[in-house]
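Bug report

Summary: structure tokens for MinD-like ATPase involved in chromosome partitioning or flagellar assembly differ between web form and batch submission.
Environment: batch mode, default settings.
Steps: 1) Submit the sequence below via batch. 2) Compare with the web form result.

Sequence submitted:
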Amino acid sequence: MADRGVLLWLSGTSEPDVVASLDAAADLQVVRRCADLAELLAAAAAGLGSAAVLGLGRGVDRNRIADLRREGVAVVLVAARADAARATSLGADAVLVEAEGLDQDVVRAVRAVLQARASEGHAVSEGGRDPREEVRAEPDLTVEGAAPVRPREAAVALEGGAVSGVGAGGRVIVVWSAPGSPGRSTVAWNLAAECASLLSAQVAERPSVPERRGTATAPDPETAPDAAVGAVALVDADTFAPSLAQAAALVEDSSAIAALCRAAAQGVLDPSTIRRRRARLPEGVDLFSGLTRADRWREVGGESFGEVIEALRARYRVTVIDVAAGLEQPGLRGVDRWQATRAALGRADDIVVLVAADPIGVRRGVHALADLHETGAPGTRHVVVSKVRQSSAGRAPGEAVAGALRRFAHVEPAAEIPLGSQVDEALLRGIPLLSVAPRGAVRLAVRGLAASLLGVPEALPGRRGARRRIANRRVG
């Protein structure tokens, strides 16, 4: 009866009645009454049951519920009426409010969620574990006499909580690369500044960018209060080498991204939290600073960071995310330092893949593109060759690198960014290139990339005649 076994962790006077009602049901059986959350997680990992009933106690958050679901265990969460709103935002299969007759409500809820998984072809192996997928989307169910069963927000396709698809709202752009120093943070910082500049210029002509999938459209004012709405958000989600706060000449007193992830994990992420944690930059960009120490990477969980991304998507026309380089498979028990990177890649509308213009950078880039393909990330790839110079790639460096990428990775570069001394000046002064060298080659290349991603004209204000055009080719 392991496929109908129930793991239980409840406190209070209702726990004995719940146990008795579950055991009295012909098709259900309590296989473990857990003393704490750690024992519940261990029992789920051991495959002892296919459903878990737990209270909204200490340590229960979005990440722990996701851990249970990754083991193929359906989750029924019991909360006090005062905590019901927060409980329904944590991703459980069903949420019940503590009330008279809770034991029968639990029986109905467990049957409903197990039936839902079976009806959608979610075959449960012995021990309750599904070897094919980590988490599935459940249909909307209602348990009579209890709080409504809350459906899962979206199906999960990538490890670490990355949703297979993108949500409604603004555009999410992720800047990623192979390990090395191709300039991810520099490109992300300046790309965000250029997006803000381009969108600001568009306001005078029309209220928003033409609407299409992934296009930067204005957030819904009904769901995004005016004080929380901005044009561009810049997020430092690099769990190895966060640096955007320093690049923008800000003092790192605390980590905005860690605070937002904590709020998301507890189900209390709201517009006021986003407003408090942003740092407004003169360029019209709201910066959400990264970790103050790289060894705090566990604070940016994949499930909670995914929720943060969707909250920002709903409130900003464009969200640019700087993530850690590379990808590695997670450990046996979900120890994954790249979980934030996976979450971002899985939710991105556009993935800017940087490839350094030198032999080592090209080799790493080819392998990185293969790794990215294996994740199944749905966003459009834009391969960008960075630090283009003759000294490392020959007399025609751009064409040489493009030829290598065509031959070994079967992709066409979307843009080239040359190596320029103005980048050092911008870093020294803590400002973007548009304020340091507005006519510089590096700045114009990044602006062209931003214009191609947003689908807007790239002409500089006050400039007539020729434009610098950079091809925008979609790489499958």
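Above is the batch result. After comparison, the two runs are identical; trailing whitespace caused the diff. Residues 123-167, 208-214, 220-228, 462-476 have pLDDT under 50 and may be disordered. The chain has two domains: 2-153, 162-454.
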